[in-house]
Write a structure and sequence with these properties.
The complex is a heterodimer of chains A (109) and B (117).
Chain A (H helix, E strand, L loop, with lengths): L2 E3 L3 E5 L4 E8 L6 E6 L6 E6 L3 E5 L2 E6 L4 E6 L8 E8 L5 E3 L3 E6 L1
Parallel strand pairs in A: 2-11
Antiparallel strand pairs in A: 1-3, 3-8, 4-5, 4-9, 6-7, 7-8, 9-10, 9-11
Chain B lengths: L3 E4 L2 E4 L4 E8 L5 E7 L6 E7 L2 E5 L6 E7 L2 E7 L7 E8 L2 H4 L6 E2 L3 E5 L1
Parallel strand pairs in B: 2-11
Antiparallel strand pairs in B: 1-3, 3-8, 4-5, 4-9, 5-6, 7-8, 9-10, 9-11
The chains are: A mainly beta (109), B mainly beta (117).
């Protein structure tokens, strides 16, 4: 079966750095996505990785290792508005997105 | 209005009711999706339409019936639902990926919070 694993909840302090991990087992691989979802709102796209390595976009970075079936989302200089759920999704060989259950990130002052 | 819109935002219905959810996208995309989001569970893909044709039906019960009259509009018709169907129903759109082979993220609407009593 296909499976995406990510921690259920994490807590971090404002101004700090946090890393959210995602491991996957899917039928084929055509890219990995990270989305942010604030409570009661729509998921919004954060990043996309299809090749191994680090993609940096401002305070957010995403890393991929295809051989390990592993990705992480790195958030720097945390702000209170970063409190949200972070969803990892992998596009399989049929170009369908397989989603993780999301990681709820709580930022404390 | 821009992006992906969904109506209604909240819906309470009894198990014998019939209702419809509406989704509209103003992004010129040719693929549209219905997802179910339950608390602490992964997003569940329900239906996919590419160029108005249904391409995926992930073992969804027949009490959910999708309709895609054109590439901008998507409906989800509901009838004789069960309490376990209570969830957030999200609509999304994107450019068709399989044919282009490229990277296209999905854009989501705000969802309809459905409660079945």
């Amino acid at each position: 079966g296909q499976n995406i694993d990510q921690p259920t909840e994490m807590t971090a302090t404002e101004g700090a750095i946090v890393q959210i991990n995602c491991t996957y087992q899917t039928s084929g691989f055509n890219g990995l996505f990270w989305y942010q979802q604030h409570a009661g709102e729509a998921p919004t796209f954060l990043s996309y990785n299809v090749l191994d390595g680090l993609e940096e976009k401002g305070r957010f970075s995403s890393f991929l290792s295809r051989s390990k079936g592993y990705s992480y989302l790195l958030l720097k200089e945390l702000q209170m508005k970063d409190s949200a759920s972070y969803l990892c999704a992998v596009r399989d060989s049929n170009y369908q997105l397989i989603w993780g259950a999301g990681t709820k990130l709580i930022i404390k002052p | 209005e821009t992006g992906v819109t969904q109506t209604p935002r909240h819906l309470v219905m009894g198990m014998t009711n019939k209702k419809s959810l509406k989704c509209e996208q103003h992004l010129g995309h040719n693929a549209m999706y219905w997802y179910k989001q339950s608390a602490k569970k992964p997003l569940e893909l329900m239906f996919v339409y590419n160029f108005k044709e249904q391409t995926e039906n992930n073992s969804v019960p027949s009490r959910f019936s999708p309709e895609c009259p054109n590439s901008s509009h998507l409906f989800l018709h509901l009838h004789t639902l069960q309490p376990e169907d209570s969830a957030l129903y999200l609509c999304a759109s994107s450019q068709d990926e399989a044919s282009s082979g490229g990277f296209h993220e999905q854009y989501f609407g705000p969802g309809t919070r459905l409660t079945v009593t």
